[in-house]
Specification:
The chain is mainly alpha-helical. It folds into two domains: about 60 residues, Arc Repressor Mutant, subunit A, CATH 1.10.10; about 130 residues, Tetracycline Repressor, domain 2 (Orthogonal Bundle). Helix content is about 65%, strand content about 0%. Helix 2 packs across helix 5 and helix 9 runs antiparallel to helix 10. About 5% of the residues have low confidence. It comes from Marinobacter segnicrescens.
Length: about 200
């Protein structure tokens, strides 16, 4: 468990400090192991003092997810080429998952959204408008793109390989997993862009 110095313990509590400490604990031991008691211990405070800033564990996790998602850069102004805009977004997801591999699984399966997710959705919609995606396809296309992007980032970050057509995935050791996952992630991003082009092309016929 991360230790705090006397100086750190004297720092006033704030939501940002709480979320960062919780994020560190999740990356160390996983989200299932996180508790208010352990978080308070890491911060050097009484557990009850946390409830002045976060209502419960659900609110705590949402704050952690928001904190992580805020590190995802949404380039502004958006690149003129919609493919480059979405390519950078996909690469950003991949880098974020590499940075926080243990927070990604609970984040992408959480039923509760964040304000930052809405901003990311809006950014994707703007890029899809540039691509020429039809309005009636926009909600499904945006949701599919977001889900696919964060899902593949999670697969890559956690050292998994794309499952073969038949049989079990080959074991991947730590040394080889990173290179393979990077290749898989880039391939997936380009496949995603090709799929959008196909959707737009079919809609114009």
């Amino acid at each position: 468990m991360p230790r705090t110095s006397p100086r750190q313990r004297r720092q006033p509590l704030s939501p940002e400090r709480i979320y960062r400490a919780a994020l560190a604990l999740i990356e160390e031991n996983g989200a299932d192991d996180l508790s208010m008691r352990k978080l308070a211990g890491a911060l050097g405070v009484d557990a009850m003092s946390l409830y002045h800033h976060v209502e419960n564990k659900q609110a705590l996790l949402q704050g952690v997810f928001q904190t992580v998602q805020e590190e995802l850069v949404l380039p502004e102004p958006m690149p003129a080429d919609w493919k480059e805009a979405l390519r950078q977004l996909g690469q950003g997801f991949h880098q974020l998952a590499q940075r926080y591999p243990r927070v990604f699984p609970p984040m992408i399966t959480s039923p509760w959204g964040t304000e930052r997710e809405r901003e990311i959705f809006h950014y994707i919609q703007r890029a899809l408008h540039k691509a020429g995606v039809a309005e009636q396809d926009m909600p499904r296309a945006t949701s599919a793109l977001y889900t696919f992007g964060i899902g593949m980032a999670n697969v890559a970050a956690n050292g998994l390989r794309l499952r073969p057509l038949y049989g079990e995935p080959e074991p991947v050791n730590e040394a080889s997993a990173h290179g393979t996952s990077d290749t898989d992630a880039q391939f997936s991003i380009e496949m995603m862009l090709a799929g959008i082009e196909s959707l737009v092309s079919e809609g114009r016929h």
